[in-house]
Amino acid sequence: MQTILVIDDDVYIGDMLEEMLTKEGYGVRRAYSGSEALLLLAAFRPDLVLLDLMLPGVNGEAVLDAVSGIPVIVVSARTGVEDKVNLLLGGAWDYVTKPFNGKELLARITVQLRRASLSQTQCGAEDMLCFGSLVMNTRNRQVFIKEQSVKLTRTEYAILKLLLQNPEQVIPKSVMLDRISEESPDCVESSLKVHISHLRKKLKEAGGEDADYIESVWGIGFKMKMQDVTIS
Fold first, then answer.
1. Looking at the predicted structure, is the pLDDT value of residue 227 above 60?
2. Rounded mean pLDDT of the chain?
3. How far apart are the two ends of the chain, measured CA to CA in Å?
4. What is the dihedral of CA 171, 177, 182, 183, to 10 degrees?
5. Which strands sit side by side in the sheet containing 142-145, from one edge to the other?
6. Rounded to an integer, what distance in angstroms lies between the CA atom of residue 59 and that of residue 74?
7. What are the beta bridge partners of residue 145?
8. Which residues, 6 or more positions from 198, have their beta carbon under 8 angstroms from its beta carbon?
9. Of 14, 137, 182, 210, most Cβ neighbours within 10 A?
10. How far is CA 22 from CA 16, 25, 44, 221, in A?
């Protein structure tokens, strides 16, 4: 049974969440303050956290900073775009505004649990390269975004593989051409930008307009790009 930690000092909302989640087959633990949440997180590891921000004692932002490797959905009355962006960039996996629709929240929980499961089972394997929702299986040369297959040419695959193997590095054009020359000997500097453009287009088609995974570093080369955040 998957367990969800509900961190909210509002007893009514907490009770409603516990009842809803229990009916869906989840185990539920409760914390009514940030301090209590940190103590619980030190003692056990939930599968997902529902986190309010306005907590007594330690605030929700501080709790979020202390959570690592666990999906966190912020459930808050704050509606400001800047608040949402800062929290999503700060580690939250999703953001739901109070008052919320129960069915929508359950759907978001399902999505984030599935995402966490895919990350653990796929990206722990030697033949898997992952970056956000993008997964590459180097054994069978398949690429997926959010479980949707992306068909790449030989050159596009070689470029993406190199970038995924070095996700935090800027790969100079000359280095990229040298490293992919074995798999794609016909790719030259004049055509590299075209291949990158086609690759970015295919990734966006599979993951949506916000799935812009490749960043051009002017005058140097290319690197993997942190996902832009979509606020609904």
1. no
2. 86
3. 31
4. 80
5. 128-131, 134-137, 142-145, 148-149
6. 12
7. 134, 148
8. 153, 156
9. 14
10. 10, 5, 19, 50
- Tokens found for residue 107: 């759907």
Q: What is the DSSP string of 77-113?
A: S---HHHHHHHHHTT-SEEEESS--HHHHHHHHHHHH
For residues 89 and 229, the answer to whether their CB atoms sit within 8 Å is: yes
For residue 229, name the pLDDT band (cuts at 50, 70, 90): very low
> What are the φ and ψ backbone dihedral angles of 221, each rounded to 5 degrees?
180, -135
How far apart CA 10 and CA 51 sit, in angstroms, is 12
Domains of the chain: 3-122 (3.40.50.2300), 128-224 (1.10.10.10)
Q: Which pair of structure tokens corresponds to residue 65?
A: 């900073």
Of 158, 169, 171, 146, give the one whose Cα is nearest residue 199: 158
Determine if the peptide bond prior to 99 is cis (ω within 30°): yes
